[in-house]
Design a protein that fits this description.
The chain is mainly β. Helices cover 0% and strands 48% of the residues. It is built from no helices and 25 strands. Strands 1, 19, 20, 21 and 22 form a 5-stranded antiparallel sheet that branches. A 4-stranded antiparallel sheet has the order 2-3-5-6, with no helix packed on it. A hairpin with a 2-residue loop joins strand 24 (339-341) and strand 25 (344-346). The chain is globular and about 65 Å long.
């Protein structure tokens, strides 16, 4: 007899004048993606759920499977708010830049590394801890090959602006060096109280920065996505006059905080949004949308005919062996003692 803790089947039809594909069912906020070999690897915010930061893999950016987590044991310095991991790959090494709440402190940026995308990961501790909090890290090399870390100072948490900073980082990814430089901040009416979630791509003569603005979360969210560009990583940066490029439509609300990725010569943006039918109750789900570079060197999301896209998603666990399905998570505030044996889960 099967012992199933959950069997969930979702069938979703998306009808939109700006077509996007739902590719990550369930709460996968702030998704980040990188290609390693022939496989795409992604991670997403886990917030106060543990294990921290799911690891997902795919061959086509559409069909994803979970393969463990970055942290099966919490980093010694952090206790909760495991936000916005950025996964990157260079010279045979995988890096996860992430934000978490420092014990007795505030939100800090840190980095972990591994020899393989599935881990195991070694945590190297905090890189930046500002008084207002530091979140949403993204690594990028400048036009001369110097490695920088881009991030948001969480000024909105103390009712201040939210500058996007860049600071040089050593090649070991263990320390920031020199002085930080502001790239841009929230200053336009549509950006409201914040800009955040910056990710970048270099194409032709320009760096392009995707960024989110306004309120990310919950039933009152008004999140949107804009683009800025610069010929030099450290600026000056120019925001697109047609911003915001992603905003609410008939199916999805509050789209933002994602990562650009190339696939077979085409470019896509993996980001999150709330399903308008279920609102906030199923969390921020992973969406994929194609974009292109215009003749005047800006970014344009592809307008496609109305489409229907169905996703079937099933979860079950028969408690075979001594390990739970990778989709199980627990509250970071509860030390859930558990045992799996002979087809039975004991809590």
């Amino acid at each position: 007899m099967k012992r199933c803790i959950a069997l969930l089947t979702f069938v979703l039809s998306i009808f939109s004048t700006q077509a996007q594909k739902l590719v990550m069912r369930g709460d996968h906020a702030d998704p980040s993606v990188v290609k390693i070999g022939s496989t795409y690897w992604a991670s997403a915010t886990s917030s106060n759920w543990f294990p921290a930061y799911p690891l997902l893999h795919s061959k086509d950016l559409i069909n994803w499977k979970t393969k463990g987590y970055v942290f099966n044991t919490l980093p010694a310095w952090a206790d909760y708010y495991f936000w916005a991991p950025e996964i990157s790959y260079e010279n045979g090494k995988v890096y996860i830049y992430y934000a978490a709440h420092k014990k007795g402190g505030n939100l800090c940026l840190a980095v972990a590394s591994a020899d393989k995308p599935e881990g195991p990961y070694t945590d190297h501790g905090p890189l930046m801890c500002e008084v207002a909090g530091s979140i949403d890290a993204f690594p990028m090399r400048d036009e001369n090959g110097k490695l920088y870390l881009i991030w948001k100072e969480d000024g909105n948490s103390v009712k201040k602006p939210t500058p996007i900073w860049a600071m040089e980082m050593n090649e070991e990814r263990t320390q920031l060096v020199g002085e930080k430089k502001m790239l841009f901040k929230n200053e336009l009416p549509w950006e409201k109280k914040l800009v955040e979630g910056v990710s970048m791509i270099r194409h032709g003569d320009y760096y392009y920065a995707f960024y989110a603005a306004a309120g990310c979360c919950g039933s009152g969210c008004d999140y949107v996505t804009g683009v800025a560009r610069s010929k030099n990583l450290l600026g000056p940066w120019e925001k697109y006059e047609k911003n915001p490029l992603l905003k609410n439509n008939d199916s999805w609300i509050c789209p933002g905080h994602g990562t650009p990725i190339e696939k077979e010569g085409k470019f896509y943006f993996l980001y999150h949004g709330y399903n308008k039918q279920t609102n906030v109750f199923t969390g921020r789900e992973g969406l994929l949308k194609e974009f292109t570079f215009t003749n005047d060197n800006w970014i344009e999301f592809i307008e496609e005919p109305t489409v229907a896209y169905n996703t079937n998603f099933e979860i079950e666990d028969e408690f075979k062996g001594n390990k739970l399905n990778d989709r199980w998570q627990w509250s970071v505030f509860q030390n859930a003692g558990k045992k799996v044996s002979k087809g039975v889960l004991t809590l």
